[in-house]
Design a protein that fits this description.
Layout: E1 4-6, H1 14-22, E2 33-40, E3 44-52, H2 63-67, E4 70-72, E5 75-79, E6 85-88, H3 90-103, H4 111-124, E7 136-145, E8 157-167, E9 178-183, H5 200-204, H6 207-215, E10 220-224, E11 232-235, E12 239-246, E13 249-254, H7 265-276, E14 280-283, H8 288-297, E15 302-307, E16 311-320, E17 323-326, H9 334-347, E18 358-360
Parallel strand pairs: 1-3, 9-10, 9-16, 13-14
Antiparallel strand pairs: 2-3, 2-8, 4-7, 5-6, 5-7, 6-18, 7-8, 10-11, 12-13, 12-15, 15-16, 16-17
Length: 362
């Protein structure tokens, strides 16, 4: 078993840490340590370290800088009522990381090594796990190709890193409904591409559309399919759900995993929870026309987005160059709030966990 060497970091004073944790924002503040593990073809994974958070030393010819052979994951650690720390479904992130690695011709990272790397960092920086309402320790595992070679081929060397960031709400306004921009000019992914995996390049191609959304006064972008520019796929960082009522119970509709939509861990959690409650679930194509007409008629009760960063976020307004429409009066609905409360309750150890999603250190 690969053991982790430790290079202790100089820890920031308690007063400084407390000031940063009071209002960490999202992804702006980082803990004292990081984990690094190297890989070489023919050697495998080696040189696992817990070391001070700091710059990486890379050749200007590093393959990831030229050909985007890089991936990442995102998960969270939560302060539990008994003083312990819990992770939410980290095994799912380990599996998805390897799905992405296979698609990008990168090496598989053993699931147990992924989990040990994450726990090593969480335990070293336990004092950085925030306890405020809506706060968590966001964990960012990533892998980059480090071969200093400009030929177009898979790298022979890689670096896996885990960093941690105490974080609050993803959106500045907190839990209030957000406004989204439906992009009709740009596509996020296409059939046969990398839309179903956590490739860093997927997010680069979404940034211009996100800038367009911000110019239109919106919080996030919703992308349509790349072929017909008709079908709702996902947001730049979120999966989407549309809430109806059928036979007196909620019916959740979400676009299917068609090869260009990311199989979100929170998405899967929502589907599992809905089925557990006996609600209706449909994974089917969902068009922009259906979204608009059902929102206007009132047949559509709610729309929400989900993801590791945003958890569950209500969408109140959808805007495009053809105009805008409101969903449920632009107010958060009861299904959205109920799902968020249930998932957050499990994440924070405040509710029963019938699915075994919250993992504690053995």
């Amino acid at each position: 078993m690969l053991e982790f060497d430790t290079v202790p970091a100089e820890r920031r004073p308690a007063e400084e840490r407390a000031a940063l944790l009071a209002d960490p924002g999202f992804g702006r503040v980082f803990t004292d340590h990081m984990v690094t593990i190297r890989y070489a073809e023919g050697k495998g994974w080696y040189d696992a370290r817990l070391e001070p958070f700091g710059p990486l030393s890379l050749s200007p010819a590093t393959a990831a800088l030229h050909y985007s052979q890089e991936l990442f994951e995102g998960l969270k650690a939560y302060a539990l009522p008994d003083g312990e720390v819990g992770l939410f479904r980290p095994q799912a992130n380990a599996r998805r990381l390897n799905t992405t690695a296979e698609r990008l011709a990168m090496p598989q990272l053993p699931e147990e090594l992924f989990l040990r790397a994450v726990w090593t960092l969480v335990e070293a920086d336990r004092e950085w796990v925030p306890t405020g309402e809506g706060q968590s320790l966001y964990l960012r595992p990533f892998m980059i190709a480090t071969d200093p070679f400009l030929g177009v081929r898979p790298s022979s060397e890689y670096l896996f890193v885990v960093i941690a960031s105490p974080s609050g709400s993803y959106f500045a306004g907190g839990a209030k409904p957000v406004t989204v921009w439906v992009s009709q000019d740009y596509s996020r992914a296409a059939p046969g591409g990398t839309g179903a995996v956590k490739a860093a390049a997927n997010y680069a191609v979404s940034l211009r559309a996100q800038a367009q959304a911000q110019e239109a006064g919106c919080d996030q972008t919703v992308f349509l399919d790349a072929v017909e520019h008709r079908w709702i796929e996902e947001s730049g960082s979120m999966n989407l759900f549309f809430v109806y009522e059928r036979d007196g119970a909620p019916l959740l509709v979400t676009p299917p995993l068609n090869g260009s939509i990311l199989p979100g861990v929170t998405r899967d959690s929502v589907l599992t929870l809905a089925r557990h409650r006996g609600w209706g679930v449909e994974e089917r194509p969902y068009s922009l026309e259906e979204w608009r007409s059902d929102a206007i008629s009132g047949a559509l009760r709610e729309t929400f987005a989900c993801g590791t960063g945003v958890v569950i976020t209500s969408i109140g307004t959808a805007r495009s160059r053809d105009g805008e429409f409101l969903i449920g009066g632009a107010a958060e609905g009861p299904v959205t709030s109920s799902i968020r409360d249930a998932i957050v309750g499990i994440q924070r150890g405040l509710a029963e966990d019938p699915f075994g999603w919250s993992l504690r250190r053995a």
